[in-house]
Amino acid sequence: MEAHAAIAGSPPEEKPVLDLVLYPHRSLSPQGFLLLMGGIAGLSFMIGLIFFLVGAWPIVGFLGLDVAVIYGAFRLNYRAARAYETIRLCGNELEVVKIDARGRRRRYVMPSAWLRVDLEARPRRTSRLTLWSRGRALEIGVFLGQEEKDGLADVLRDGLRRATLPAHLTVPDSN
Q1: With contact defined as beta carbons under 8 Å apart, do 127 and 140 qualify?
Q2: In 3D, which of 98, 129, 106, 97 has the Cα closest to residue 116?
Q3: Is residue 161 within 8 Å of residue 168, measured between CB atoms?
Q4: What domain range includes position 63?
Q5: How does strand 125-133 pair with strand 115-122?
């Protein structure tokens, strides 16, 4: 956690209108993964034992290879799940920070007054959620499903509306 010291004469840091963190959805927990891999390994062992007993021992190696490939695919999937995005709308700017699976960080800052949220429908695929500002585009939430993108677009539009209102006007919370 970072500590910010206020400089004398500088305005206090504004409270963010939006402060979101987007994570890819993973339906299998680590415990579920262990149970699934245990079941696959046990089943492969039993099938391999049957083939070994009837004299088709080379099949055992292929069953072991199957287990190793499934394990490797799940490990790659879990590593990709470490990627996430943060979206922070504060005052007159929107900041998007994208952290990839390797921990590399990219930061994008856009003025909120010029920002447009675009949800582009694509046939037979999830839509594309893009932020546009002064002719530049930034796609966000690539790993989200359709319903999640729809909800995020609504939240962003509402947040932008709140951020661009004059100080003497307020929008009631929808909670």
Answers
A1: no
A2: 129
A3: no
A4: 30-80
A5: antiparallel
The pLDDT value given to residue 51: 94
Report CA-CA distances (Å) from 164 to 116, 120, 150, 156: 12, 24, 21, 12
Tokens 């209102």 label which residue?
165
- Which distant-in-sequence residues (6+ apart) come within 8 Å of 87 by Cβ? 18, 19, 20, 21, 22, 94, 95, 96, 140, 156
- pLDDT of 80 above 90: no
Please tell me whether residues 119 and 57 are part of one structural domain.
Answer: no
Tokens 């694509």 belong to which residue? 122
Flag whether pLDDT at 7 surpasses 50. no
pLDDT, tens digit (0-9, with 9 covering 90-100), for 118-146: 999 888 888 899 999 888 999 999 988 88
Instruction: Fill in the DSSP letter of residue 141.
Output: -
Domain total in the chain: 2
Q: How far apart are CA 30 and CA 43, in angstroms?
A: 20
My answer on whether 110 and 73 are in the same domain is no
